[in-house]
Amino acid sequence: MKDLADIKAEARARAFARRQAAWERGHPAPAALLMEVLAPHWGRPLSGYLPMRSEIDPLPAMAEAARHGPVGVPVTPKRGHPLSFRQWTPESVMVDGGFGTSIPESGNWIVPEVLIVPLVAFDRDGGRLGYGGGFYDRTLALLRAAGPVTAIGFAWAAQEDDGLPLEETDAHLDLIVTESEVIRP
After folding, report:
1. CATH node for 4-183
2. Where are the alpha helices (H) located in 45-93, listed in sequence order?
3. What is the similarity comment for this entry (predicted)?
4. Cα 66 to Cα 160: distance, rounded to the nearest angstrom
5. Whose CA is closest to 85, among 115, 128, 55, 127?
6. Most buried residue, 73, 89, 115, 152, by most Cβ within 10 Å?
7. How far is CA 176 from CA 60, 66, 185, in A?
8. 35: left (phi over 0), alpha (psi -120 to 50) or beta
9. Residue 55: which of 137, 121, 139 has the closest Cα?
10. What is the secondary structure of 106-168 as a DSSP string?
11. Phi and psi (nearest 5°) for 73?
12. What is the distance of C-alpha 34 from the center of its chain?
């Protein structure tokens, strides 16, 4: 009998294949809806991410947000710890952040109130399957304990999966934005 870790690994493998296919098909402006969703939040501390491999690209929306207020990107800590966020602008000098990521060489640390959350798969109830490290689950739990936070999953529509193997500790999303729709769980 498979344990939950094996079931999640299989779900991730299927989702990565769907994400790769969506990325290869492309879209002329995948962040257009994300920018609309973020507009009411301009000026609030926001975090995004720098896309890797076939992740959908939030950078146009992040660049616009940075014109209105602080935008951070995650700095990946040791396993078992929450993320920290260093302020980013399109002009930031980037350095290796480990785990295949880049981070700003310098900048203030911010505490985001709005997070653009990368993911491997999602469902319409706000469920999110991440990469398996639990970084966003721990981070969202910590931030939500301190005050209101809006977690926005950003993904290709092809990453939707109605049968996600979720656990109690998997943090839910407040919204999911794809290249073609906004999903409000």
Report:
1. 3.40.50.10420
2. 59-66
3. Belongs to the 5-formyltetrahydrofolate cyclo-ligase family.
4. 29
5. 115
6. 115
7. 17, 21, 8
8. alpha
9. 121
10. S--EE--SEEEE--SEE-TTS-EE--SS-HHHHHHHHHHHHS--EEEEE--GGGB-TT----T
11. -125, 150
12. 12
Mean pLDDT of the chain: 91
pTM attached to this predicted model: 0.91
List C-alpha distances in Å: 168 to 67, 137, 153, 171, 172: 37, 10, 18, 8, 10
Does residue 71 sit in helix, strand or coil? Answer: strand
Question: In the prediction, which pLDDT does 89 show?
Answer: 95
> For 96-124, what is each residue's pLDDT tens digit?
887 778 889 999 999 999 999 999 999 99
Q: DSSP character for 87?
A: E
Q: How far apart are CA 128 and CA 118, in angstroms?
A: 9
Tens of pLDDT, residues 3-51: 778 888 888 888 778 888 888 887 778 899 999 999 999 999 999 999 9
Please state the rounded mean pLDDT for residues 167-171.
88
Q: How many helices (H) and strands (E) would you count in the chain?
A: 4, 12
Other beta carbons within 10 angstroms of residue 106's beta carbon come to 10
CB atoms inside a 10 Å sphere around CB 179 = 22
